Amino acid sequence: MNEPDLVIVGGGNAALCAAITAVEAGARVLILEGAPKDYRGGNSRHTRNFRCMHDGPLSVLTGSYGEDEYYDDLLRVTKGNTDEKLARMAIRGSQDSQPWMEAHGVRFQPSLSGTLSLSRTNAFFLGGGKALVNAYYRTAESLGVQVLYDAPVTHLELVHDKITRVDYTYQGKDLSLSPRAVVVASGGFQGNIERLVAAWGPEAENFLIRGTPYNRGDVLFDLLDQGVQSIGDPTQCHAVAIDGRAPKFDGGIVTRLDCVPFSVVVNKHAKRFYNEGEDVWPKRYAIWGRLVAAQDDQVAYSIIDSKSKDLFMPSVFPPITADSIGALAVKLNLDVNALEKTITDFNAACQPGDFHPTELDGVTTDALTPPKTNWARPIQDGPFYAYELRPGVTFTYLGFKVDETAQVQGPNGAIRNLWAAGETMAGSILGQGYLAGFGMSIGTVFGRIAGKEAADYVR
């Protein structure tokens, strides 16, 4: 192995964008990916789209999606908890990143049925996130990027304002390198249940992790312990409601449940607890993981009837089905009388209106707490269907504080040869909430920035 100028910690979208950018600028690059080759790519392997600003039709994107509208969408989900300068950099950078992605092997497809509301804002990867990861690895390796799998980094030695050593394990040996620069793009700490419990409390034991178990946050906490400045709340994360039958780790996108807007959602006591129709799903789906996490036993149930069963992308698991609400309650181990009353009260509160499943339609309830402010149609046409919901954590928001060049800020200012990209710094922009496809935008834009800045430094 040639001695690298630049070591990139991590092997997902942000790491690959940094690696490709840096090697094209003349740097010798080594990727240290903690996962085995079959699990390479972190959360990127489970993604499916990229949120993209564009002034007019672009590739598979329709219409236009301007900077201010994009930023307003972000403000709604984060409730203003964002660094505006970095957020606008990610937004503006997404526009020229889309053709850059195509030039480096990524292919896109038009929005599918069930995702048509995103055709203007989000470009979907042909073959999903795994195809994107594989395309980037092919491109990176053809350009001379070296990759080691099953090579977790255990320590970055910070001396004053510089990283002087990278410690990692590979093939059973403890090894070290002293590259001229380092980019950390190794994700959050959601794969570390002990860390989640420390942040959230014992309820985190019931969380499901949508990605691999290799995103443990070891490098993140190693550097934070050395005084690197942090950003973000350890209890904030991208957490969605997923099928309760999903595996503990790595269930991915196919376990997500998109039925909530067309349903009634109840907790284990058969009581509703939030407005299911608050906003269109791409802007609100990521709040439901946290909402379910706050319920007893971290479980809820989404209930629909036959007229809504084809309005959303289905889970990989079939729904629980019954011919009556009472029979459904029995199958869900819910109190029959309580669930029948909840559904009866909801149905009585539904007001007439024109139902439009892909946009806010104002079809609402009256005198019901909590209300349902859109898509409120009675649950009355059997057979009836239910899905068990559990919190599915995608990535955590605790990360490094960076500047506009993606340079990591240490105890006494910028660390001269350290940059971060992707989930390790996304907490600067995503203080809370989530916007569909925006994690890929942050990773792509700041991965390219970090790769360029690191390459400039080593040159």
From TrEMBL:
<dbReference type="InterPro" id="IPR012831">
    <property type="entry name" value="CobZ"/>
</dbReference>
<feature type="domain" description="FAD-dependent oxidoreductase 2 FAD-binding">
    <location>
        <begin position="5"/>
        <end position="431"/>
    </location>
</feature>
<dbReference type="GO" id="GO:0016491">
    <property type="term" value="F:oxidoreductase activity"/>
</dbReference>
<dbReference type="InterPro" id="IPR027477">
    <property type="entry name" value="Succ_DH/fumarate_Rdtase_cat_sf"/>
</dbReference>
<keyword id="KW-0285">Flavoprotein</keyword>
<protein>
    <submittedName>
        <fullName>FAD-dependent tricarballylate dehydrogenase TcuA</fullName>
    </submittedName>
</protein>
<dbReference type="InterPro" id="IPR036188">
    <property type="entry name" value="FAD/NAD-bd_sf"/>
</dbReference>
<keyword id="KW-0274">FAD</keyword>
<keyword id="KW-0560">Oxidoreductase</keyword>
<dbReference type="InterPro" id="IPR003953">
    <property type="entry name" value="FAD-dep_OxRdtase_2_FAD-bd"/>
</dbReference>
<dbReference type="InterPro" id="IPR050315">
    <property type="entry name" value="FAD-oxidoreductase_2"/>
</dbReference>
<dbReference type="Pfam" id="PF00890">
    <property type="entry name" value="FAD_binding_2"/>
</dbReference>
